[in-house]
Specification:
By secondary structure, the protein is mainly α. The chain has one domain. The chain is about 60% helix and about 10% strand. The chain has two helices and two strands, in the order E-E-H-H. It has a two-stranded antiparallel sheet with strand order 1-2. The two termini are about 15 Å apart. The mean pLDDT is about 90. InterPro entries: DUF1656. It holds the Pfam family DUF1656. It comes from Salinicola corii. Keywords: Cell membrane, Membrane, Transmembrane, Transmembrane helix.
């Protein structure tokens, strides 16, 4: 069960840290894609961005054990 964190009296949702980690990884990966010209191969680069971010967020949640996966 995920619980909230208390920071200076404010309750922070438990998904805040994984979302920020995935955002950082996404920004790095996007810069690499732009530098290598890989966006040329995508029909809709915005949809590719959304899919890449969703996969990164899922990966971060799965690796930290925050994702309830049935065994």
């Amino acid at each position: 069960m995920l619980t909230e964190w208390s920071f200076l009296g404010f309750l922070i949702p438990p998904l805040t840290i994984p979302i920020l980690v995935a955002l950082g990884l996404y920004l790095i990966l996007r810069r690499v894609f732009v530098r290598l010209g890989l966006y040329h191969w995508f029909w809709q680069p915005v949809l590719a961005d959304i899919a890449i971010y969703a996969l990164l967020l899922w990966s971060v949640l799965a690796l930290t054990g925050s994702l309830p996966i049935a065994e």
